[in-house]
Amino acid sequence: MFEGTRSVGIPTFDSVNGRMMEGPGGCSLVEIRMRDWQRLSIFRSYTHPYMDRPNLTVLTSALVTRLIFEGRRVSAVEFTYQDKVHRIGAGLEVVLSLGAINTPKVLMLSGVGDQAELHRFGIPLVEHLPGVGQNFQDHVALPGMIWECHGDEPDAIFHWFARSDSSLDTPDLQTTQAPLERTGLKKVNPTLPASGWIMIPAVIRTKSRGRVRLTGPGPLDPADIESNLLSDPDDLKALIAVVELCREIANSSALRPFFKQEVVPGNIKGPGLENYLRNNAISWWHQTCTAKMGRDSLSVVDANLKVYGIENLRIADGSIMPRVTTGNTMAPCVIIGERAAEAIRTAYKL
Asked: 3-state SS string over the chain?
């Protein structure tokens, strides 16, 4: 695989992190957080070791419904747990970390957002912040391009990053590659080859923008998510480019002995390929940017993650990103949490 990517100008790196994503691109083995051959979650690393502390309570299956205000100061959080409504008072402050969908939803349900949007559902305005729920961004991908292999599947997982245009300063394309057996797809689609290789191409510097809106004033009213994937024509061009680059790598002399033929999507080009991409493109589950940090009219938080115009409230999740990151969003979200903790320690001399 390294030889195949190098043949199309993608260099090899020892680590997927850092300069590989910040420069012109590269290919590396995937790094996975694991212990005893099992995936190691962020919760397991950060929270589980301290579950016996008396000042920490973790409630699963609890739904945060809204923030309670005294003027513009957050005084409590309301949530439902085991079919009952509860309130917890805020001694110093509240940190929302509900993600790019539910963070703006709870803000709007609590009266923080665009005044016209809140007026539609009779929600009393606490603070007019028109950027709440706007600027929705995501990475767009294909479920997978699949090649039939000669013999056994190679047993490794790779990432590569590349640019669809040499004028770009950082990569805008990403592909995850793995043995077909690792995906579990053969269990749900027995027509797939017995031995196969999958590449999942994605566009990671998307220009399309969407938004998250309310559908009603209640916490059980679902959010209206307008992702607008591929609404910008440049994103479709980039997705075509990453598909063609996958094909170029798979057809390289280095990989030709291993790959027999492309079975999904097969020999589709031109307008047929465009239609295929529009019909099959998916979210890469990196929804972000709906309560962004900044100083313009759509900004929601400042450099310390404090919500503009509101006292005792910070946001610490992917919604505060001004733009979606070049690579996967898990590690950046961890860093956002680390910086929030640092700001809180500094503010209260903890």
From this structure: CHHHHHCCCCCECCCCCCHHHHCCCEEEECCCCEECCEECCHHHHHCHHHCCCCCCCCCCCCEEEEEEEECCEEEEEEEEECCEEEEEECCCCEEECCHHHHHHHHHHHCCEECHHHHHCCCCCCCEECCCCCCCEECCEECCCEEEEECCCCCCCCEEEEECCCCCCCCCCEEEEEEEHHHHCHHHHCCCCCCCEEEEEEEECCCCCCEEEECCCCCCCCCCEEECCCCCCHHHHHHHHHHHHHHHHHHCCCCCCCCEEEEEECCCCCHHHHHHHHHHHCEECCCCECCCCECCCCCCCECCCCEECCCECEEECCHHHCCCCCCCCCHHHHHHHHHHHHHHHHHHHCC
Phi, psi of 107 (to 5 degrees): -60, -45
Determine if the pTM surpasses 0.85: yes
Which of these is catalytic: 48, 119, 150, 286? 286
- The overall longest dimension of the chain from CA atoms, in Å, is 69
User: What's the chain's length in residues?
Assistant: 350
Report pLDDT for 78.
Answer: 98
Catalytic-residue membership of 48: no
**115-138 average pLDDT score:** 98
Domains of the chain: 2-29+140-283 (3.30.410.40), 59-136+291-348 (3.50.50.60)
What percentage of the chain exceeds 70 in pLDDT?
Answer: 100
pLDDT surpassing 90 at residue 154: no
CA distance 269 to 140: 19
Task: Scan for tokens 């973790």, then name that residue.
Answer: 58
Per-residue model confidence as pLDDT tens digits over 105-125? 999 999 999 999 999 999 999
Task: Compute CA distances 19 → 13, 28, 170, 202, 246, whole Å.
Answer: 9, 12, 10, 19, 22
pLDDT of residue 283: 96
Q: Quick count: other Cβ atoms within 10 Å of Cβ 272?
A: 12
Asked if residue 321 lies in contact with residue 136, where contact means CB atoms within 8 angstroms, the answer is: no
